[in-house]
From TrEMBL:
<dbReference type="InterPro" id="IPR000569">
    <property type="entry name" value="HECT_dom"/>
</dbReference>
<dbReference type="GO" id="GO:0004842">
    <property type="term" value="F:ubiquitin-protein transferase activity"/>
</dbReference>
<feature type="domain" description="HECT">
    <location>
        <begin position="26"/>
        <end position="187"/>
    </location>
</feature>
<dbReference type="InterPro" id="IPR035983">
    <property type="entry name" value="Hect_E3_ubiquitin_ligase"/>
</dbReference>
<keyword id="KW-0833">Ubl conjugation pathway</keyword>
<feature type="active site" description="Glycyl thioester intermediate">
    <location>
        <position position="151"/>
    </location>
</feature>
<dbReference type="InterPro" id="IPR042469">
    <property type="entry name" value="HECTD3"/>
</dbReference>
<protein>
    <recommendedName>
        <fullName>HECT domain-containing protein</fullName>
    </recommendedName>
</protein>
<dbReference type="Pfam" id="PF00632">
    <property type="entry name" value="HECT"/>
</dbReference>
Amino acid sequence: APHEVLAYAEAAMAARLREAEAAAVAIRNGLASVVPAAVLPLLGWRELERMVCGRGDVDVDLLQRNTEYDEGVSPEDEHVRRFWRVLASFDSEQRQQFLRFVWARSRLPASAADFAQKFKLQAAVPEPGAAPGARDVVHEPDAFLPKAHTCFFSLNLPRYSSDEVMRDKLLYASFNCLTLDADYRLLDSELGGWPGVT
């Protein structure tokens, strides 16, 4: 009957319009845990993204203001000034990749107040137990890559001799060194177990 078709169409439309309601409520509650719920209707999507996810562009000045220098490293050191100069010369993609290398994230917090952990620049030190006569990072810094510690948001930075060497080493390390995600790569034996072993 025609009235049943209309009732069915209305019921189907109501179900379709409400099918994502539970998910939308969960998303709203999650957002409200980061941004006050009363503010949500006032924000555009870009503002909301920035508040929740941080800055999409890596603001080198913001990072520099939120950097600690470990013992033996000073913001006045030539290699530290060189580091900031070279990092500022990177394009957006290179800066994001550098951030992934040192922090396993591609975005900075939205503001200085949102930094729960500051970036730390540390001196590069020789590897313990190196063979006698082996190259070391103190005497031949240009032969070594920087070393990142993503859990601590820190970088062991060799005293590179030029901006070009600094740039090449930072870019190579940022784009080619294994990231934190590599910690969770499983071997075939771990995925499927050992043959014949239960």
